[in-house]
# Entry
Amino acid sequence: MFTSNPWGDYVTILAPLIAGYYLFIGLRFYGRDLKAKIARKRIDSASGPRPQQGLDVPDPPIPSSLSAEQGETVVSSLEDNDKSDQKPAAWQNEELFDQVERLAAHLKEAIEEAHEKEYGKQDFILLLQMTLKEYPALQGAPFQTAINNLIETECAKYGSIHLREEDKVVIWKQG
# Structure
């Protein structure tokens, strides 16, 4: 029943309990910060392709009413225009795409916070407006649909607030 070294047994039992407690507290209260820091390191690392984080931007559509020959002509003329223009399309702009990735991470955190604090619909819309106001270059950009889809997906994930199309238009209005 008694051991020769009770303090050794005490430390053997107490050390994992204390470590587990601090791990729980750290993850509970600083988990979002740790995730953001890890995500920032992944984005900042220049090795390998960048993750798109669910913001797929499709290539411009080619009308289906064109014949195969006309479609090839349109595609080749689009490629020639891309080569002749020095400025890449907005969805190919690296800085703009970086801003979209930062906005996506910021929106995910904001929507999670709104769910945790049980924001009302008007407060939630105001939060989204303030968040989007921090990224003025994305106003009217081709990424707006992708960002709206991200907002809709995140809202559906938590299920607390659902936005109509009119609300999404209001979110993007400057004012």
